[in-house]
Amino acid sequence: MAEEPGAAFPLDANGRDAAEIPHHVAIIMDGNGRWAEDKGLPRLEGHRAGVEKIRSVLDALARRRVKFVTIYAFSTENWNRPDDEVEGIMSILRDVIHQETRALHEQGVRVVHLGRSDRLLPDLREAVSQAQDLTQHNTAITLCVAFDYGGRSEIVEAVRQIVRSGAKPEEVDEKLLSSHLYTHDIPDPDLIIRTGGEYRLSNFLLWQSAYSEFYTTTVPWPELSATHVEEAICAYGRRKRKFGALTPDP
User: Of 30, 138, 148, 190, which residue is the catalytic one?
Assistant: First the structure.
């Protein structure tokens, strides 16, 4: 029997101390293409496997009471990939939205799109809009999908909006700029996980990640398991977050 919209995911009874759990986890889902090539498969099959992995990772994070999850699905630079790969990714995303939105809604997931929508094909743009409209009042967990997203372009667009508003230079501060970002109602990520072994942000949440903890694993995204997620959260729990200040030794 399906849960009512807004009902929470099942959660571990023996969860960690809330102080050790990141409120917002952002993920750079890297390694899809290389994973497929290593298996002798077309790169597109890696992207398909990567999309199928999202649900299980979302479940693992929800069980640890993470309230916000952001996945980096398609960057502004990804348009430079071969046309057939881009078209394939768009097709996979459209299929997944149609197949998964109802189930996500029944589990209380709020879906939010971060990024540009004007360059998406009309049917995909409509599917994204419908998914957001259907799930907008859900409260169990928020899934932000960064699609056609770039951190630099997000900041530039925020500045343009502020200039168009006629704000005076002395009125511009961090709070004002943050209010014009795609993430204006989303808390900054506490933890950023990157799969595939790389150590760069790749133009992802540049403003928002100022004090995020960074965790990387060599495991490609399609092979990321609940155990790997737990390892990342445990690593986060061992770190001391000072936000530039000094804290007394215990």
Answer: 30
